[in-house]
């Protein structure tokens, strides 16, 4: 089959147009880096879905493209992603620069965002960013965080609201009126709580700033709570046994209280009586304690001469029926000075 010169010329023109269009679309969707470029690398704990050719931005302006992605094993055995990227040579990065993996759209396309606050020495071409990059947001984990909110929603109430909305769109004035009344009720509640809502809205940024500043502590607390939960889960049988033993112990304690409760009540009542007696005779008890203190001091004084007590017999008499004789007087003795 032979093509005429006109048909061949048309085919060539068509192919040239297709090629030109394809190149234009490729250049539009994947524009190259303007002029000469400089290559840098950054480390991430996770660089999922970031691929070669993705955009690199600085302050929201596209300045380069992502190059190769790989991984490196660290000294502690962990693995980090290593991403190289090329940016325009006239764009300088400092040692304070850091990289973040961000979403370009809801379809999952990523791009590399650079943040450079400055105030440090400039990086040489080919250097690695000193700050660990921020990994992409885990959308699944983000939506899982709304799970408690979704659990609070009442399915029948949602179905009723959906039916009301559909009826309103179909022109059902009664349903539309009911929906407006419900919306007005919600608006009135919001207006009544306007001060509280404004206070919460004003304090939320400060709370988020504190959380961001204490990010390491929050992460450590979450990790510690996770480890505690895992440890408790691994000791589930021991915990159940401990609770069972605790229940048995409390039952025995309750039985003991039931048995000894009358005696315990009498002891408490006696203690109250003693306290009242003490309160009413405070001066007498105080005098008793002071006399005991003086007695203790006197007894202590007797032992000042050594580890013994000196005893003096001042009177020694013998009595037989009605007859009594003082032995000291019979032998002509005298009393010691202590006894005089």
Automatic annotation (TrEMBL):
Determine the domain of life of the protein's source: Bacteria
Q: From which source organism is this entry?
A: Hoyosella altamirensis
| Domain Mce/MlaD intervals | 38-116
Domain Mammalian cell entry C-terminal residue range list: 133-293
Taxonomic lineage from the root: Bacteria, Bacillati, Actinomycetota, Actinomycetes, Mycobacteriales
Protein name (record): Phospholipid/cholesterol/gamma-HCH transport system substrate-binding protein
Q: What GO CC annotations are associated with the protein?
A: extracellular region
GO biological process annotation, one example: biological process involved in interaction with host
- Which Pfam families does the entry link to? Mce4_CUP1, MlaD
Q: Tell me the InterPro entries matching this sequence.
A: Mce (IPR005693), Mce/MlaD (IPR003399), Mce_C (IPR024516), MlaD_Phospholipid_Transporter (IPR052336)
User: Which NCBIfam families does the record associate with it?
Assistant: Mtu_fam_mce
């Amino acid at each position: 089959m032979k093509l005429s010169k006109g048909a061949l010329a048309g085919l060539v023109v068509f192919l040239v147009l297709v090629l030109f269009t394809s190149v234009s679309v490729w250049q539009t969707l994947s524009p190259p880096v303007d002029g000469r470029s400089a290559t840098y690398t950054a480390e991430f704990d996770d660089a999922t879905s970031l691929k070669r050719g993705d955009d690199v931005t600085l302050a929201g302006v596209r300045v380069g493209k992502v190059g190769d992605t790989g991984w490196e094993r660290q000294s502690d055995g962990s693995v980090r992603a290593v991403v190289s990227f090329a940016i325009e040579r006239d764009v300088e990065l400092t040692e304070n620069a850091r990289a973040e993996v961000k979403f370009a759209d809801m379809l999952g396309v990523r791009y590399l965002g650079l943040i450079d606050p400055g105030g440090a020495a400039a990086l040489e071409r080919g250097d690695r960013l000193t700050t660990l990059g921020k990994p992409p947001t885990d959308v699944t984990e983000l939506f899982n965080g709304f799970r408690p909110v979704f659990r609070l929603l009442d399915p029948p109430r949602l179905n009723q609201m959906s039916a009301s909305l559909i009826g309103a769109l179909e022109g059902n004035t009664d349903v539309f009126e009911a929906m407006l009344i419900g919306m007005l009720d919600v608006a009135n509640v919001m207006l009544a709580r306007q001060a509280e809502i404004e206070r919460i809205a004003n304090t939320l940024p400060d709370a988020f700033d504190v959380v961001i500043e204490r990010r390491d502590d929050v992460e450590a607390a979450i990790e510690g709570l996770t480890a505690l939960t895992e440890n408790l889960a691994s000791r589930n049988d021991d915990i159940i046994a401990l609770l069972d033993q605790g229940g048995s112990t409390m039952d025995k304690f309750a039985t003991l209280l039931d048995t000894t409760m009358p005696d315990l009540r009498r002891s408490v009542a006696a203690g109250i009586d003693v306290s009242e007696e003490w309160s009413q005779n405070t001066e007498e008890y105080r005098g008793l304690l002071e006399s005991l203190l003086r007695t203790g001091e006197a007894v202590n004084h007797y032992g000042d001469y050594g580890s013994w007590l000196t005893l003096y017999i001042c009177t020694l008499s013998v009595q037989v029926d009605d007859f009594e004789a003082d032995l000291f007087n019979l032998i002509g003795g005298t009393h010691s000075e202590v006894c005089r």
